[in-house]
Design brief:
four-stranded mixed sheet; two-stranded antiparallel ribbon; about 100 residues; alpha+beta
């Protein structure tokens, strides 16, 4: 079971430059990417996602079987909340 904890819902939702963590098994998963670099997690960075769709999209991106991913947020936002990753940040390959 992979446990993903997001401690950045406010900065995701409002693009504020506040502290932002996105961890799986205690390891930070957000990586810095320059504007001219390839972005492996482009679907999360540019297109955005809703909290309801995030688990399914993340399982597909990281190739994790269903029921092996548990996502927890530190704030209680409605599932329809549309979010984007902070500028110059993206998700890369799963680090364990």
């Amino acid at each position: 079971m992979f446990r993903v904890a997001s401690h950045c819902a406010p900065c995701l939702a409002f693009r504020q430059p506040s502290r932002c963590d996105f961890k799986a098994q205690g390891k930070e998963q957000l990586v810095t990417v320059a504007e001219d670099e390839d972005d492996p997690g482009w679907r999360f960075s540019y297109r955005g996602f809703t909290l309801d769709s995030f688990q399914k999209e993340l399982m597909k991106f990281w190739n994790i079987p269903e029921a092996h991913l548990d996502i927890k947020y530190d704030k209680d936002f409605p599932g329809r909340t549309k979010v984007h990753l902070p500028k110059e940040k993206t998700l890369g390959a799963l680090k364990m």
